[in-house]
Amino acid sequence: MKILSTISATTVGGRDGHGTTSDGKVNIQFALPKELGGAGKEGATPEHLFGLGYSACFGSALQYVASLKKKRLEPDFSVTAVVALGAKDGGGFALEVELKVKLPGIDAAEAEALVDEAHTVCPYSNAIKGNVPVKLSVI
Question: Would the pLDDT of 36 be above 90?
Answer without folding.
Answer: no
